[in-house]
Amino acid sequence: MAQEYKNIAIIGAGASGCVCAYYLLKSCLDVTLFDIKEPLLTLLPTGGGRCNLAFAEFDFKELVKNYPRGEKFLYSVFSRFSAGDTIELFKELGVETYIQDDGRIFPKSNSAKEVREKLLKSINKAEFIKEKVLDVIPPGSGFKVITNKAEYFFSHVVISIGGGRFFSSLKHHIVPYKPALTGLKTDITYPAGIVIKNAYSTQYKISGNILFTHSGISGPLVYKISSINAYKEFPYDLNFNLLPQNNLPLQQLLDANPHKEIKNILAKYLPLNFIKVLLGELSEEKAHRINGKTRDYISDKIHNFKITATGTNKGEETVTAGGIDLNEINSKNMESKLYPHLYFTGETLNIDGFCGGFNLQNAWATAFVAAESIIQE
Ligand SMILES: Cc1cc2nc3c(=O)[nH]c(=O)nc-3n(C[C@H](O)[C@H](O)[C@H](O)COP(=O)(O)OP(=O)(O)OC[C@H]3O[C@@H](n4cnc5c(N)ncnc54)[C@H](O)[C@@H]3O)c2cc1C
After folding, report:
1. Which residues, 6 or more positions from 301, have their beta carbon under 8 angstroms from its beta carbon?
2. Distance from the CA of 201 to the center of ligand 1, in angstroms?
3. What is the Å distance from ligand 1's center to 277 Cα?
4. CA-CA distance, 215 to 218, in Å (whole number)?
5. What is the pTM of this model?
6. Which of 10, 121, 230, 286 could cross-link 178 (Cys pair, CB 3.0–4.6 Å)?
7. In whole angstroms, how large is the CA radius of gyration of the chain?
């Protein structure tokens, strides 16, 4: 196969595969997309159907800090394609965006469906083959792509299979997969549905909401912790300050309300159902009966809340930690260091970010860098 003619297979028509196709098609290259399912279905549930496209951190040196795995690798990638470039990309595709108060970037329509439709329209010149790729074989100058139905030959291959199973003929190392951005099972449970707003993790120095579930804890703060600890053995202990902005003036409150039950005094600060379980029978005690030692015990329960994580909730994870070992990929162009003309994008790499649009940002940016590199080859 003559190397100057490029025909490119993109395996996986998800977020990163389709954006890679978009850039390659802009340079009039010959692109074939493979997917088991219809393209871009993975985009529909993102951001609860609103598609959180990226996060408004425009300094790439700060942006990389939101990736428990991949921070160093993404430095070069985001120096070339950062949050501003994501906004530009979607503008080009006809998707206007806005920045929410918390910094998350969404389409103005708040519709993942719109994002999918516009992106699909922009790649309609690519050939789409709805087949499952079983293996990719690198026989010297080109690649053989074997699907459940046929075999195909390409000069270049981009692997964009997200959390999909990797191909055995390619000798890349896989960092073991672990669930990340997920809820945690805990030793003690509290009534499901209770939310503690703006709790502070004293161990990880981060804050956010905690949501109690049937089997444990969830919510943005817990998701972040689960990602940081993706490779930590269970069980592990967690400590939270449940009222970080408010060092509870407990003695004053007790003195001012001597005949009130402690649960009714604290209900101004924390959900009543939660206090009842946290303090048990003590929550029914009248304020005037609380001595100094008990007061400090209550205060400690709130400002130094302890719970033990015993596992993750299967199926609740938003991303997968683990994937292709980054030591085997060139971060300047997303090319494999083992096989020339083989590229990787998105979540199939050992990269995962926190909640807030960071995972899609990784998908768009790595897709852009891979495409640029193929175009310039
Ligand atoms: C419920 C949910 C909500 C999310 N919300 C957000 C959000 O709002 N913002 C954000 O930044 N991130 C979000 N994420 C994460 C984000 O969706 C992913 O990080 C992103 O889709 C990864 O893109 P990708 O191209 O690497 O992989 P994917 O988008 O997963 O695409 C991989 C594609 O490869 C195909 N494939 C796999 N194996 C094969 C094979 N052997 N042959 C052929 N095709 C194959 C799959 O069918 C799939 O279409 C969310 C994830 C979930 C699950």
Report:
1. 278, 279
2. 29
3. 39
4. 9
5. 0.92
6. 230
7. 25
Q: Which CATH number goes with the domain that contains 325?
A: 3.50.50.60
**Going by CA atoms, what residue is nearest to atom 8 of ligand 1?**
47
For residue 322, the model assigns a pLDDT of: 96
Residue 193 near ligand 1, beta carbon < 6 Å: no
Which of 294, 312, 330 delimits the end of a domain? 312
Average pLDDT, the chain: 95
Domain boundary among 293, 312, 331: 312
Same domain for 324 and 308: no
Q: In this structure, is residue 358 part of a structural domain?
A: yes
* Residue 120 lies in domain: 7-178+319-376
Report CA(306)–ligand 1 centroid distance (Å): 34
Q: Are 219 and 194 in contact (CB under 8 A)?
A: no
| Together in a domain, 139 and 19 | yes
Within a domain: residue 1? Answer: no
pLDDT tier at 318, thresholds 50, 70, 90: confident
User: Based on the domain organization, do 288 and 343 belong to the same domain?
Assistant: no
Task: Check whether residue 90 and residue 171 sit in a common domain.
Answer: yes
Residues 306 and 264 in one domain: yes
CA 43 / ligand 1 centre spacing (Å): 7
The string of pLDDT tens digits covering residues 169-227 is: 999 999 999 999 999 999 999 999 999 999 999 999 999 999 999 999 999 999 999 99
Same domain, 88 and 134: yes
Q: Are residues 96 and 172 in the same domain?
A: yes
How many Å separate Cα 303 from the centre of its chain? 29
**Does 45 sit in the ligand 1 pocket, CB within 6 Å?**
yes
Ligand 1 contacts CB of residue 15 (under 6 A): yes
Domain assignment present for residue 2? The answer is: no
319 lines ligand 1 (CB under 6 A): yes
Q: Are residues 51 and 115 in contact, defined by beta-carbon separation less than 8 angstroms?
A: yes
Encoding tokens for residue 215? 């089997």
Count: domains in the chain: 2
Q: Alpha carbon of 42 to those of 10, 36, 183, 360, 368: distances in Å?
A: 16, 12, 20, 11, 19
Whether residues 145 and 18 share a domain: the answer is yes
Q: Is the CB of 32 under 6 A from ligand 1?
A: no
